[in-house]
Amino acid sequence: GEFRNAEYEPKTEAASCQEEEGNATFVLAHTPQTKACIQILRLFFHITTSDPTLSEEMGKDGLHVILSRLVNCDLVLDEEEDMDSLFEIQELACEIGNINSSSFPMK
C-alpha cells in the first residue's frame, strides 16, 4: 500500500520507562534511542542549512509536526542527565524550526 506519514506511528519509545515502587521514571540519557534521535536531528539540521529545497519538502512532508511535538514535550525527569538530553533534543528541534520558519510552522 501507499505510505502516508500521518498514519505512521513509531513503535519504539524515545525513552525507556522503568517502574520503581509504582512510579514510572523515564531514562533519556545514554539510551540508544536518544542517541539516534539526536543524530537524526543533527542530520536534519545539516540538510536544512545546506539544501533549502529539500528542507521545504521535508516541512511539507510533516517534519514540522514532529519538531513541534519535541519542542512542546514537557516531561518531569528526576536525573539532571536526562533533563540535559531532553533539552538537547528540544534545542536541536528549535534550531531546525527557526532556520526555515516558512517550511516549519512551529504552532
Give an overview in words.
The structure is a single chain. With 107 residues, this protein is mainly α. 56% of the residues lie in helices and 9% in strands. The chain has three helices and two strands. The protein has helices at 32-50, 52-72, 80-99, and strands at residues 16-20, 23-27. Strands 1-2 form a two-stranded antiparallel ribbon. α1 runs antiparallel to α2 (52-72). The protein is elongated, with a radius of gyration of 15 Å. The chain starts with 15 loop residues before the first strand and ends in an 8-residue tail after the last helix. The relative contact order is 0.17. Residues 1-17 have low confidence and may be disordered.
β-sheet strand percentage: 5-15%
Beta strand count: 2
Terminus-to-terminus distance = 31 Å
* Main pleated sheet: 2 strands, antiparallel
Structural class: mainly alpha
Quick overview of this protein structure:
The chain has 3 helices and 2 strands, in the order E-E-H-H-H.
